[in-house]
């Protein structure tokens, strides 16, 4: 799946049907006991059912349309066109709930969003690469 807007709609629809309050953010990781899940462990509908049974009426949801222009500091110097064309699509979804002192996270990101994050976090820019073999220049 390349655009995760359907997953976001699934979570908001579930919250409305089950009368859960949506908090448009997710808790920080590594601040206490937590369980991190994703599609490999449990699908989103299963996670939402668990949240409905255990989550105390609150569902944390973070997903936003991709905007490469929003955070200039996190933008790669010369982003590839195939990533820029993703503007407006949802590339990452994070859902969470807390139960019995434990935060349960369900997270998923597309390959293209992971590529963007990797480029944005990379200290090496295109200008820092050797023209012949593409390896980082030392000076």
Largest sheet: 5 strands, mixed
Radius of gyration: 18 Å
Shape: elongated
Give the tally of β-strands: 5
List segments where confidence is low: pLDDT < 50 over at least 5 consecutive residues.
none
Structural class, by secondary structure, is alpha/beta
Mean pLDDT: 86
Give the spatial strand order of the biggest sheet. 1-3-4-5-2
Along the chain, the helix and strand elements come as: HEEHEHEEH
Amino- and carboxy-terminal Cα gap:
41 Å
**Total individual domains:** 1
- Counting DSSP H or I runs of 4 or more residues, the number of helices is 4
What portion of the residues fall into strands of 2 or more residues?
A: 15-25%
Q: In which range does the helix fraction lie?
A: 25-40%
Description:
By secondary structure, this protein is α/β, with parallel strands linked by helices. It has one domain (5-123). Helix content is 28%, strand content 20%. The chain has 4 helices and 5 strands, in the order αββαβαββα. It has helices at 5-17, 44-54, 81-84, 111-121, and strands at residues 21-23, 34-37, 58-62, 92-99, 102-109. The protein has a 5-stranded mixed beta sheet. A hairpin with a 2-residue loop joins strand 4 (92-99) and strand 5 (102-109). Helix 1 (5-17) packs parallel to helix 2. The radius of gyration is 18 Å and the shape is elongated. It starts with a helix and ends in an 18-residue tail after the last helix. The model has no long low-confidence stretch (mean pLDDT 86).
